[in-house]
Amino acid sequence: MNWTIDEKTQKAVVKYPLAKLGGQRCQQFQGKNFNPNNWSHRLIGPAQWPSKSLKSSPDEIIKQFRDKQFLQALALVVSWGGMNRVSRYIYDTRHLGVIEEALRKCTASIKATKSIENAWRILTGTNRDELVWSSVISSKTLHFLCRAMGFEEDPPVAIDNAVILNCVWPKFRDAIPKDELPGGWRGNSFDAYSRYMSAILTWARMTGWRTWEVEATIFARYGRNRQ
After folding, report:
1. Where are the chain's structural domains?
2. What is the pTM of this model?
3. What is the pLDDT of residues 77-96, one digit of tens each?
4. What is the DSSP letter of 217?
5. CA pair distance 227, 225, nearest whole angstrom
6. In the chain, is it the N or the C terminus that has fewer CB atoms within a 10 Å radius of its CB?
7. What phi, psi does 33 have (nearest 5°)?
């Protein structure tokens, strides 16, 4: 994919290694049991699930995006990301038809540019037909959408509050002298997310892993007891 690397972030990542990154890579979370009947109000028209009971696994999310079942894919992303309790902020900001069309526009934009910059704006923006989503749900959705489009090596990866922003970022930040400190990762701006992805992409090059393997490993190691 096309990424613009933040040089200050890149230099800090190389000079001040992340303590718990390395060794054996960790597997991406494989999802939860998913009951399609609980999500019918989040769809338009008849559902086309593969079975009455399934898991919100990465493979199933990617399949739904490939099949252009955008709202079904989104429901699985919400389940996979543990965002059920905040789902009103994802769905209630816009009509379902607007959400579905926004995801179609994201797909077309990424296909044309090999970049998520415009797609990020579609999901997080506050204008008409933009979704006013947080960086958390936007990053998780774009991760699986890009992988469904064939971007397996360096797709955008999930960012979350509990582990990445409240644990990993402070530990990374506190190891860096103030005069070398890059900008932070918090907020819904594309610049903030790009700095986070600059770190992920640099760690990926250092380890030889794919970006989502880096994120899964960081999440697993720093999320364990939040230490």
Report:
1. 7-27+157-226, 33-148
2. 0.96
3. 999 999 999 999 999 989 99
4. H
5. 5
6. C
7. -60, 135
